[in-house]
Amino acid sequence: MALSCSKCPSSSRLAASASHPRLPREQRLAASLSASPSSSRASSVSSLNCLGQRPDSLRGSAQSLRNRNRYPNVVRMQEAGFSSGGNESTVSITVVGASGDLAKKKIFPALFALYYEGCLPKHFTIFGYARSRMTDAELRNLVGQTLTCRIDQRENCSDKMDEFLKRCFYHSGQYDSEENFAELDNKLKEHETGMVANRLYYLSIPPNIFVDVARCASTSASSANGWTRVIVEKPFGRDSESSAALTRGLKRYLVEDQIFRIDHYLGKELVENLSVLRFSNLVFEPLWSRQYIRNVQLIFSEDFGTEGRGGYFDSYGIIRDIMQNHLLQILALFAMETPVSLDAEDIRNEKVKVLRSMKPLQLENVVIGQYKSHTKGGVTYPAYIDDRTVPKDSVTPTFAAAALFINNARWDGVPFLMKAGKALHTKRAEIRVQFRHVPGNLYKRSFGTDLDRATNELVIRVQPDEAIYLKINNKIPGLGMRLDRSKLNLHYAARYSKEIPDAYERLLLDAIEGERRLFIRSDELDAAWELFTPVLKELEDKKIAPELYPYGSRGPVGAHYLAAKYNVRWGDLSADDPHN
Ligand SMILES: NC(=O)C1=CN([C@@H]2O[C@H](COP(=O)(O)OP(=O)(O)OC[C@H]3O[C@@H](n4cnc5c(N)ncnc54)[C@H](OP(=O)(O)O)[C@@H]3O)[C@@H](O)[C@H]2O)C=CC1
Ligand SMILES: O=C1O[C@H](COP(=O)(O)O)[C@@H](O)[C@H](O)[C@H]1O
After folding, report:
1. For residue 78, how far is the Cα from the chain centroid?
2. 326 noted as active-site residue
3. In CATH, what is the architecture of 10-233?
4. What is the assigned CATH class of domain 266-565?
5. How far apart, in whole angstroms, are the C-alpha atoms of residue 35 and residue 83?
6. Residue range(s) of every CATH 3.40.50.720 domain in the chain
7. Quick check: CB of 172 below 6 Å from ligand 1?
8. For ligand 2, atom 13, which residue shows the shortest CA distance?
């Protein structure tokens, strides 16, 4: 666990300047928690109402009336939010699906890390909610075990953990029972007396019950005088149609500004840094186009299979699990035009624009694979279909490579190549930018026939061992004239002593603060599905068989043919060690 946000210095994050350019995080948090429409700062979170909307967007009587008719609960919450006054405020965070894997692995540890660093507000309560029967003590025990095995040597850690666990409670209930949510509401109220009560629900449950929970939470357990927000985990549907249906379902009970669709890759340090790199360094932005960039590679590789999640994975596959969301989000941030400001809506507008400039992925630009069993060093690694929850004849891809194009003046003709796979030889997530050849290169003889070796390459290593490095050609010191490829290397572990916060810490804190920049807006989601839905349908209708690749290998050879079609050579993940 990363316990490192060190009082959340505003200078360390773009978010700090996104909605409150000059306010330190503590003040922004306070502003968000006591959000009142009477504040005059037009662009700040404190000018937003309980739903995180600007009051003027609600004052329009037509809009208000429409909302009143269509979303009675929402309007009740909105109106209630206006009377929040100057009281102290509290935030109640309910983890729905608290008995599950994600809650244990990510959500509770992230909440504890925020608490440890003093990033949570003074008054807060955490509730676990799920069908499993559990007492408060049992939940504390479960969460405590997860934390204990991750923290150890931190100063005062066990005292902090005890304090944190005392703020954790549990309520058992059904996901579609308004009565059970009303019981939760009563329990939450016990901790909220006399304060502006803000409520955050984290839906860490399968997507088929998202709408039920949104209904029950909004009708029976929404805040009476503060904001109510809902974090929704992926997957957001399986295709354009199901995603639109899910959005419609959620919007019966929530307005868009209450919905925080999480893509945890947006919370990763180096993904957040992309905009800083591009827009605050003169050396990069002028090169960021078809004029200088030959191709861009977005690579996700895991060195383990779908262990334990085969049931979920088989109905989604790697394109939906990784490409349509994590890699496409990175692509959008990489390729978007300069936003008007760092405000969430300005950034998301640009992301939507670039996604809409893309052609839907074509079948001839996709290669799919599935891992098969492999024995190495006396150990046999299982095939995907060896998972008990996966049908033996499954054609679900665990690997995919794809070539996408952006039809705009900046990127016309530049291949954006994506590669995502499970059970490969290494764990890595990277962005690789390969630049064009130097025209009339005076030193071209030094590179023999392989001129590609002479081109610059910028690598942004998202994880693990975060780094940004630029491969350049350099004269080997000495009397002769020999060149080599060297790296200008920003290796995070060497440069920064801080541990990098986990993506979930950043995103949870943003949701509490009402900062939407790193969450997916519904039109972004629609645009993302439009790019992948046709090809997914074709692959599934035609039952196209994936190319098998051995567990622990580099994936199907087809990926190399796809890249070669566009004159691209995949960057070599294992050869590029940032320490060198
Ligand atoms: N785990 C991970 O690494 C990741 C998960 N996600 C997403 O996060 C969400 C939660 O994931 P995860 O914790 O792994 O999921 P789980 O399968 O562990 O489910 C979470 C909880 O939901 C309840 N639940 C499970 N299945 C059903 C069902 N069919 N009907 C009703 N309730 C059910 C269970 O609680 P109970 O029986 O006690 O009610 C369970 O503990 C999912 O949407 C997942 O896709 C996203 C990224 C990564
Ligand atoms: O969303 C998902 O992400 C994880 C990888 O996340 P990371 O932060 O560990 O890189 C992936 O294993 C999982 O299949 C997918 O659902």
Report:
1. 28
2. yes
3. 3-Layer(aba) Sandwich (3.40)
4. alpha beta
5. 10
6. 10-233
7. no
8. 321
